[in-house]
Design goal:
Layout (H helix, E strand, L loop, with lengths): L2 E5 L6 H9 L3 E7 L4 H5 L2 E5 L1
Parallel strand pairs: 1-2, 2-3
Length: 49
């Protein structure tokens, strides 16, 4: 399975995340701690303290 790592998890990354998911990619999100929408939608997420 192909993977994509997205830096940032805010609203600006949401369209790219949705495109990647629709093409079957496993999506990994890396961002600072916060209430960002991509954390819930990604397959795996890492939060930087």
């Amino acid at each position: 399975m192909k993977k994509v790592m997205i830096l940032g998890a805010g609203n600006g990354q949401l369209p790219f995340l949705n495109i990647c998911k629709s093409k079957g990619y496993k999506v990994i999100v890396v961002s600072n701690v916060g209430n960002y929408p991509c954390f819930d939608l990604a397959d795996k997420s890492y939060k930087n303290l």
